[in-house]
Amino acid sequence: MKIAIDAMGGDLAPHAPVEGALAAAKEWPDTQLLLVGKPDVVQPLLGSGRPSNISVVEALETIEADDEPVRAVRRKPNSSMVVAARLVKEGEADAMISSGNTGALMTAGLLVVGRMKDIERPGLTSIIPSIDKVGVLTLDLGANMDAKPEHLLQYAMMGSLYRQKVHGISKPRVGLLNVGTEAGKGNELTKVAFELLEQAPIHFIGNVEARDVLERNCDVLVCDGFAGNILLKALEGAGDSLFKVLKAEMTSSLMNKLAAAVLKPSLRRVKQLVDYREHNGAPLLGVNGLVVKSHGSSNALATKNAIRHTRTAIQNGLIAAIADEFGGK
């Protein structure tokens, strides 16, 4: 399999994408990694011992974080993100990964890779960690701020297929993010979406409150991109703040430092459970290829994990399964 990586996108580019690709290339020698970017920048970072399954694809432009998405994609056809998307479109890569501008990646997915037949609005999806370490697949996480009930229905169906194909859950429970669990709760969007989900060929369990997500009371959580993005960032911020408080408390006295030394392995495992870097890689479901959004501040570890999750999606035929469900590409 071949995976194109936008080497110029993200807060820590190009170092993080290149270092993550080097680590992934060594662990999975059966995977060809195409680093897309400026050769004079990327090549020196690979060093003399570059694995044989890494190559560099030239792209002399870069889409910046503050670029207007549609304009950037159209006016920068030789940008690393657009070239990577074109590799997927032309069948030169099975998937692409980028930590760059989310709006631009969404646009590249739609304009370059192309929208899947009968899918009105593709959605970003990722795993939110849960206490039982299984996680909750959530979408949309920010691709579309203003969704219609029909979009939430399609998210639910795509998310259900994702959990079946990639995670092996035979009958995934689908929940609708809402302000209460009662059927009549919510705004007009969630009320109408609730009725559509009840009639859909999925295992819909009803409304789900945000406070219960970490308990994994559903396997797929459906929401519009505005609410989903707020939920995701709130959880990330809460996790970071919690560990800052714990660190300050554990170093506040000699006794606490001794206790921290004993608890360090357990605390490290807890941190890994909630660390977004361990769960990095959000596929844009609903386009004619596997387009994966990596966290904007991804380091090498996060990049490697995005590659790992992308490999799994390719191996399980995720895009083909969604295309079959919605009547083909």
TrEMBL record:
Q: In which pathway does it act?
A: Lipid metabolism; phospholipid metabolism
Q: Report the top EC class in one word.
A: transferase
Protein localization: Cytoplasm
Gene3D superfamilies, A to Z: Isopropylmalate Dehydrogenase
Q: Which UniProt keywords apply?
A: Acyltransferase, Cytoplasm, Lipid biosynthesis, Lipid metabolism, Phospholipid biosynthesis, Phospholipid metabolism, Transferase
Oligomer status and interactors: Homodimer. Probably interacts with PlsY.
Q: Could you tell me what this protein is called?
A: Phosphate acyltransferase
The organism of origin for this protein: Cohnella lubricantis
Q: Which gene encodes it?
A: plsX
